Amino acid sequence: MKDSYVFYTDKLGKKYLDVFEQIEMYVQSQNVDDHTKEERMGELLDIFLSAEKMGKPVHKITGNDLEQFCETFCSDFGVKNRILFVLDWMKSIAKVLVFVSVLDLLFPESAEVSGSGASAWEHFSSLNISGYFIGIFTAGVLAMILNIVLRRIMFKKKQISMKILKAASALTAVLGFVIIFYFMELNSLRLFNCPVWLVLGISGVYLCLHYLLRGRHMKREKVKFFDLVQEESHKEFAEEMEKKYEKARKKNLKKGKGELSVGTFLEKEEKDCNRTEKMKCFYYILPLIVIGSAFLTTWKIDGFDGVTDAMIFIAINLVIQYTLMTGIWKITWIGVKERREWIRKKRDEIERGV
Amino acid sequence: MRGILEGCVLAVIAEGETYGYEILARLETCGFETLLEGTLYPVLTRLEKKGLIACRRAKSPYGPVRKYYSVTESGEKALDSFKANYKKITAAADTVLKGE
Questions:
Q1: Residue of chain B whose Cα is closest to the Cα of A71
Q2: Residue B18 with chain A: CB contacts under 8 Å
Q3: Do B37 and A65 touch (CB under 8 A)?
């Protein structure tokens, strides 16, 4: 269910939208929890939409000093909101620690096998927990600082585009991974040894508590990635299709094939959509081919310690490959649905003679 | 000024269940135009935290979730107390300013 305000910002006119995005930039730089941000921005959006409908200029709502407006708008964000933000953020750390703990249980670093039949669960290994935690924590703090600094700069200098922010975010993510990897590899940083079951237990308990205390009501507001992709795709889709038709029409004329009618263009697009739909099975066969090739290559060079090792290799690869392919297919399918919707609307317009 | 604005917002909400834009519009017609600039939201949050107003969420006609505010029992008592104090203060201020 699309409850989040992000799905309705395109209803604002340009002037209101510009101001709204600036205020959003400011609020995001405050590092408050998602729930507070969602509520506050949702209310503001509703007021903006109502005011715009009544024909009021945006400065009647925000005043002439936007920075002053934002400072007052965020003046009640207190320590509690920041603590909740940190707790939400630590949920990501806990998820990573659960993941690495499970991997460490499956592939113990130093396992003492006591006779035959000893299972992975019977081995205790020590994670470089200090390394993981310091690495992730450092990366997270760096990301938070950059978020505050970048968004404040973007708030003050409106001409800096979203593309720069996205590029900076991507760079921060890469830097974050490098920092995490560096600290993980720092074996000298074993400040204390911690059994993997303890790390798994504490992280698991944290995630359960987080879900019980905050997760249930946050689930309602959480913007799903694929909903966001669909929304972003929907916003500029019509414009992109018009540009595509213009390009195809000019190409046709250049090649001397005559004028490309809208009807012919729509038929071509529909055939393309049908072809893409038929390719769905390809997205599920390709991972099997990739995994099969990887398995055979590894088996040929005696890369597996035994049947269990091989099975774990296949299982992990299946999970990763199918998750990736399902995600890619979903995004592709969103594009196909948008195209079909646009084709249907265009055909309606032609029939009505618009 | 903050106290007066809280009292006035409470008074508007006490007139009947309402939402953000309606509150702004009502206050604007009463002359609060230049004072608002972002102060409404922290005021509403404070009133909610004090338990003087309650809110329910519903989808607005424009799409995003809208919060509808209504006054609680303690809110009505607080409003009565505000009105009484306000009358006292304005009477005293009038006396001082008129030099009587």
A1: B38
A2: none
A3: yes
> d(Cα A166, Cα A168) in Å, to the nearest integer?
5
Domain co-membership, A196 together with A277: no
Answer whether residue B45 shows pLDDT above 70: yes
Query: Å from A7 to nearest chain B CA?
Result: 8
Average pLDDT over residues A194-201: 76
Residue A125: predicted pLDDT: 44
Indicate the range of A58-67, A218-227, A272-281, B85-94 predicted with least confidence.
Answer: A218-227
Show which of residues 262-321 on chain A sit within 8 Å of chain B, judged by CB atoms.
Answer: none
A59 is in which domain, residue-wise? Answer: 5-73
Q: Which residue of A has its CA nearest to B34?
A: A63
Are B21 and A46 in contact (CB < 8 Å)? yes
pLDDT tens digits, A114-152? 344 444 434 334 456 666 666 777 777 777 777 777 777
Cβ pair A44:B41 closer than 8 A: yes
What residues are paired with B56 via a beta bridge? B68
Answer whether residue A208 is part of any domain: yes
Q: What is the pLDDT of residue A116?
A: 42
Residue A277 maps to a domain: yes
| CB crowding A216-236: b at 16 or more within 10 Å, else e | eebeebebeeebeebbebbee
| Per-residue pLDDT tens digits for A10-41 | 888 889 988 998 888 888 888 788 888 888 89
Are A211 and A233 part of one and the same domain?
A: no
| Together in a domain, A202 and A110 | yes
Residue B64 belongs to domain with CATH number: 1.10.10.10
Report the residue from B21, B37, B46 with minimal CB separation from A47: B21
Domain count, chain B: 1
> So what's the ipTM on this one?
0.83
Cβ contact (<8 Å) for B19 and A46?
A: yes
Q: Are A262 and A181 part of one and the same domain? A: no
pLDDT above 90 covers what percent of chain B? 33
What residues make up the domain containing B12?
2-98
Q: Could you tell me if residue A94 is inside a domain?
A: no
